[in-house]
Please model this.
Amino acid sequence: MYNDKIKRDFLTEYGEKRADSMVKRVHTFFNKTALFEAELGKDLYEMNEDELLSCIRQTGYKPKAFKTPLGALRIYYRWAIDNGIIENTVDISADKYTVSDLMAAIYFDGDVYISEEDLLQICERIPAEFNQTYFTAVLFAIYYGLDDGNECNLDTASTNDLGLRSVGWYDQVDTFTTKEKRVVAIPHHLAITFRNAARLTSFNNGLTAISKPHVTSLPVDSRQDETIIFKQGARINNDKYPNRRWARFISRINNSLGTSLTYDSIRDSGTFTMIAEACERSGQNLKADMESGNEALTVNGANKRLVYNRIFNDIGLTITWDDFFKKYKTWVRFLRDA
Model:
């Protein structure tokens, strides 16, 4: 362990009120961070936020296994202060967050933003042996969060869920109503893709041809209410692993195209894109507000957070400004200047 004596003293005190198994997990965590600490010449409590998150990411922990070490990390910071090892005025990166917040920051990759144009280009490269229309429908359904975070919510999605909503005096936007009854604005090209996907009777998932269930006997041109995205085999304990099927689906695309897409990178990028476009339409300078910092959003006595929260709600998102800023602040570089 880096700073071995200090960490052993901490583990001794930490273990007085905790099970041996918890102490061993934290000891293992410290062993895993030791190389990065040595490279920087800094203990964990001396690192700035970016250094700390980079250090923790390189340990390779999966989120579920990380809760005990992260909880211990916050205790370690406070212990170092209480024992005079660091000053109470030091900027303690880990102490800014709850464990859940810190995990979200760690597992959110700030370098994988996928613009709508990027995703369209990927879809255009989907090989002929797959069905480009179907794969595009799935990827953009994830991108715009139309599955509400659970793949099964798209099993019954149909063209009946498509609609139009008036914007201003003359304009209209295409919409999609999710299973959770959220009305989400979607680009016109996606509405067209959904209608084309609804006319399919089968598609190739990269391994085998999948036939569409309960295909109507009506002529293709008459199919106006068919399901858009249909199941690719049995569900797999979807309460516990709600998007395992999407992970397999995306993996086939990655293997074919050499991309590194993940469900989270697609979904997070889509949320960011939707918000950026909505703020631009509303005349808000999102880039400037993010660069000015979360505490600066008070204009003429009015809390501008409420303005952003209303914009997010209008496009069918449940995220708040504070959550958005905390998660996406490193993506401000992807925003256009107003």
